[in-house]
Amino acid sequence: ANGRYGYYSSRGRDGQDYDIFEIIFLGPEKPLIQSSEDLLIASLAEPITETVIEKSVEIKTIRLTIVKGKIYDAITNDPITATIEISDNDADSVIMTSETGEGGEYLVSLPSGKNYAMTIKAKDYLFHSENFNIPPATNYQEIIKDIAMNKLAAGTKVILNNIFFEYGKTVLRTTSYPELNRVVKLLEAYPKMTIEISGHTDNKGSLAINKKISEKRAKAVVDYILAQGIEEARLTYKGYAYLQPVATNDTEEGRQRNRRVEFKIISAK
Asked: How far apart are CA 240 and CA 217, in angstroms?
């Protein structure tokens, strides 16, 4: 043996003979080589942080009111096929018309920033009106409004929700004209129909004062209808003050509903 080679022997598999083996020495022991990844700069350097502020993104809010519901007969509760008309009260113009579904369902979308009249018309029924005065800043909302329709018959009443007066006065605002014109058209379609226009108030103030205000407001409505050519004999008016409320007078919302003008059929034929 020398510095490069060595020999050793061991008993063979049969246990009798010996086998001789040669060993080759490769040289002095070499150090263990660590992973080269340990020497990467990233592993030795301090972490670097950076704050990046992105440009602001404008989030647009949909300013829209969805009104939906069902239209049905007030007595039988059966669904009604009806026409829905949406008008801009300020511009006195019809914006859209649509029809109900087979089950009387309807859905309309009203962009914010307008004073809307929604009128429902159906054959042999007294028209129904709703008012949606939606401020420009109103965000998205949904309103469910089921509407009961009344037949054209003596005693049938409907609230004229799109009649407006100057604050604290009995003078009609021009935004009332589209609603009043619908009453005129109905009377023209049924030449023998006679009606009563009634004025109603909330319970703020005395009975005498409210009776006077409600009567003058009812008369203002009748005067407008007469000016459109309807015979005086077909129209009567009366002020009921706060004696026929349709809502509580304990809240502003209730008092607002009680301040109204109604249309009642006296004779349909």
From this structure: 11
* CATH number assigned to the domain with residue range 152-269, chosen from the 4 options 3.40.50.620, 3.40.50.970, 3.30.1330.60, 3.30.930.10: 3.30.1330.60
Instruction: Name the class of domain 61-151.
Output: mainly beta
Give the N- to C-terminal CA distance of the chain in Å, as an integer: 138
Eight-class DSSP state of 128: E
Q: Locate tokens 């049938």: which residue?
A: 156
CB 128 within 8 A of CB 157: no
pTM value is 0.70
Strand bridging mode 93-99 / 83-88 = antiparallel
Nearest to 175 by CA among 89, 262, 85: 89
Where do the domains of the chain lie? Answer: 61-151, 152-269
The rounded average pLDDT for each run of 10 residues, N- to C-terminus, in the chain (269 residues) is 61 64 64 54 58 71 89 94 94 92 93 94 93 90 94 93 90 94 94 96 95 96 97 97 96 94 92
Find the DSSP H helices in the chain.
41-44, 177-189, 207-227, 252-258
DSSP 8-class letter at 130: E
